[in-house]
Amino acid sequence: MDVRTLARYPFFKESGQLIRSKDISLEDLVGDIALERARLMGKRRVLVALEKGEVPEAPFASEYEALLELLSYPVARMMVASVQDPYLTRRYALSEAVAANSRLQGEEIVFIEAVAKELEVDLSRENGSARIHFSDFLRYTNQMRSKTWKLINQIVDGGYVILTKQKAIRVLQNAIQKKIEKELEEMVVNDLILRGFQGQLDEIRGIVAEKKARFKAEDLGKVRITRFPPCMYQLLAMVQAGENVPHTGRFAIVSFLHNLGMSNEEIFNVFATVPDFNERKTGYQIEHITGKISSTEYTPPECATMKSYGLCPGPDETCLRIRHPLSYYRLKARMEGQKGTGSPPRKAAK
Ligand code: SF4
Question: Where on the phi/psi map is residue 242: left (φ > 0), alpha (ψ -120 to 50), or beta?
């Protein structure tokens, strides 16, 4: 694979081989003055992931530019692994995966096949579509709540799920995110990296802390926000601050508030303070999630799913004892020795 392709898809193992073939060492990446731009680009990669959620792509004017872009990937990874913040790790992995998704849209299915092979996903071509083994399909879609992703709603042929190219890429996005997350969690960071990137790490840590501190939620009548898990607290604060909350986040906070006993009108009023508030759309979403105009009354996603969506800002001590945000609220209520001023959750949390 050439350097331009690897710069666009740096998660390929071949990227490491190419970097080694150029005689670029870890010491060079961390401190060589000639690679200062790669370090700047790496830091930018992390910051953009934190702010916008997707690593943007710039056209490469030359092979050298592409090489710098490629090098910015291991630089960014070293920085993320050094910070050791689960929220940052997930945001970063998600943003790289989402970027890969949008780049893959323009690729031929044969290239999608190569990406799947790299990710050890059993996927092959099928008349312009893709066949993916049902076990891989389940592994990478089990946290997607939409009915369109349920196995029962797929065409299955001889143990393989037949997917459009676009849906196959979406499955691969989840596989890429998981791969990057796992690699970052397992990465061993040595003193050379910590010392070499100290300035950048301080800056990134500061921005992560600032971002978390920016989200200050306000009380919601009978529902106690002091019992909210960090994920729901942050989502609520983002809504109240008029921040752009992704669809998965809106779903999570609405279903959470609903299960705490808030009425649709009360939930609606939480969203009504948002500057770009869309009354009709918000009302529809709330009524759908709470089962008023749909056959399902939803519960919020469990922790594993929240993490895969990049919605978990990192567990606190109480999180270590539960697997579901609703369980967190109930546990906190018990710890406070009260029955809870909000109505109890309507459904048992998983
Ligand atoms: S561990 Fe679970 S409850 Fe805690 S912040 Fe993460 S998603 Fe929320």
Answer: left
